[in-house]
Amino acid sequence: MNGFFSFSRxxxxxxxxxxxxxxxxxxxxxxxxxxxxxxxxFGYAINSDPKALPAALVSLSQxxxxxxxxxxxxxxxxxxxxxxxESAAEAEKLMASGKVVFVVTIPSDFARRVDRGQRPQILIxxxxxxxxxxxxxxSTLGTVASEALLRERGVPASEAKPADRLEVIxxxxxxxxxxxxxxxxxxxxxxxxxxxxxxxxxxxLTRERERGTMENLLAMPASPLEIMLGKxxxxxxxxxxxxxxxxxxxxxxxxxxxxxxxxxxxxxxxIFVLALVLLGYTxxxxxxxxxxxxxxxxFFFLPSILLSGFMFPxxxxxxxxxxxxxxxxxxxxxxxxxxxxxxGADLPTVAFETGILVLFIIVYAGFALMRFRRTLD
Amino acid sequence: MNAIDVHGLVKRFGDKxxxxxxxxxxxxxxxxxxxxxxxxxxxxxxxxxxxxxxxDEGDGTVLGFNLRTEGLKIKREVGYMTxxxxxxxxxxxxENLAFVARLYDLKPVGAHVDRTLEELGLASRxxxxxxxxxxxxxxxxxxxxxxxxxxxLLLLDEPTAGVDPKARRDFWDEIHRxxxxxxxxxxxxxxxxxxxRCHRISYISYGTMLATGSVADVVRDAGLVTYLVxxxxxxKLAAExxxxxxxxxxxxxxxxxxxxxxxxxxxxxxxxxxxxxEGVRVSRGETSLEDVFIQFMANSTDNMQ
Lengths: 377, 305
What we know:
Helix content of chain B: 25-40%
Strand content of chain A: 5-15%
Subcellular location (chain A): Cell inner membrane; Cell membrane
Largest sheet of chain B: 6 strands, mixed
Number of domains of chain A: 2
Radius of gyration of chain A: 27 Å
Number of helices of chain A: 15
GO cellular component, one term (chain A): ATP-binding cassette (ABC) transporter complex
Structural class of chain B: alpha/beta
Pfam families (chain A): ABC2_membrane_3 (PF12698)
CATH superfamily of the largest domain in chain B: P-loop containing nucleotide triphosphate hydrolases
Distance between the termini of chain A: 49 Å
Number of strands of chain A: 5
Shape of chain A: elongated
CATH class of the largest domain in chain B: Alpha Beta
InterPro entries (chain A): ABC-2_transporter_component, ABC2_TM, ABC2_TM_bact-type, ABC_2_transport
Organism (chain A): Nitratireductor aquibiodomus RA22
Distance between the termini of chain B: 39 Å
Number of domains of chain B: 2
Helix content of chain A: 55-70%
Order of helices and strands of chain B: EEEHEEHEHHHEHEHEEHEHEEHEH
Oligomer: heterodimer
Radius of gyration of chain B: 22 Å
Strand content of chain B: 25-35%
Largest sheet of chain A: 5 strands, mixed
Structural class of chain A: alpha/beta
């Protein structure tokens, strides 16, 4: 027998390892599921040059010049005019709530100016909270719109005088300098909260089960609701500390502007954290071991980062990926926090997204209470 | 009214019947020992009684509360000590007790904790982490925690496994003191000396209750006859005896062999020629509880396999 290396001993270890691997279904599933998920998400869903971005058209003059321009813009694939509104105020609301990324305004005297040979103007406002989203769309806009207008008038591009050229006024809203930290740092608040809150609570019950204390806890008069709240509420405190640290750092280190109401933000954060701890708790009612709980957390974590709009523009993803993205609380939280912090959105503007976060709380809590058994059956 | 009154309990896990038609009555103030081999369904039966498991069949009352519908009321009045230490190892003794006191709504918490610590002699270690305690102290803590809310029924699942003889003796003294005050105790154990400390024992094997009664009753009802065989080369002798008809058990006890059978005449015949051998002495012995249990185990089929 060789003391340093024995082939048969290695075989013994390998066999044991494979048996254990096969027994742990969740781990086995993760080994196949994670690479597949990453491949699909990175391969199909993520697009750093987003197209078909939702836009609103504020058209005060319904003339053929405008129509030609709008259809030309849509043909670039960058714009998708989902909303045609009458007033600037309505458009403003759509942008603040994140429903549209662009607002294109064609003034009422547009056709008149074109016909009189005065230089026509259009205004394009872009939501620049995520600077990468708007850049491609803005850069194509000027030439495309201008050429469409000339074509409509029957003027060849080579003969166009400066006064024939369309003047495009671009407003980069909320983040005129295009500082990406403005977008990333509030998003990080959501991501960091999600990571720590879900992870910590996901082992809540599995730890009791693994250490054998669950049996004792169940034998004592504690109700499932009491146990659930007892497990998740302490982490609200932890979450509060994290929120204070991250918001402080956002202000002091990164100079992220803070326009909206602090109370509205904190309320949204509270709702979000509650949803997260309940999600973690739900995971811990499903997982049998702490290891499995952490794996499930990770399995949830990865797509939620990729599809929530934290790393890549949400609107740039294909529709199926956007639908998938809607199932993550992080997606909705990011909309709320960016709207409140960077755009100064008020409660009615973010009420819908906040409502969805509340819905998550109800669903998770209901599921967890249903899954939780008072007995060891 | 009996503290425990259950009948026809059946519990299956998958296609395994772990508890099969168990009926049990325990009077108030009684200490009942619950015996049986590993995997015989003792823990499952106890868990059913404290509401941790719901039986597939059968009914009954614990402390007058319906087993199926009044689980929460049962939990309030029952103290259950799990087989494995199940308090928080990263909490101190006092913190663990305070946790339990609050769960049972005992007020004031501090006074209840102090009283319990004092009664069980844990006061000097109140600030020690439970995880750093030795087996005996852990067991004391577990007992303290489960009698703190002054339950009427104590369910103990192998409470003295891995505990030294002195600690076991103290533990049993405490159990008897509590029973004298009216507490009912159902305790599962593998130790014969502990079984003998119970007012009554119940023997369960592979889910089926085989015998119940006082130790003397159980030994008598088993109808076994025991002879002691002394002499040289007992090993060889034992092997020889096992082959003989009428001999059902041969077990070495110190310097002699316990030879057990259920048919006295057959056993006598089997041992007859031994008396003449050099140095061998055969005498009539007392059948011990252990002999009876070994017999039970040999007779019952193992449905776990």
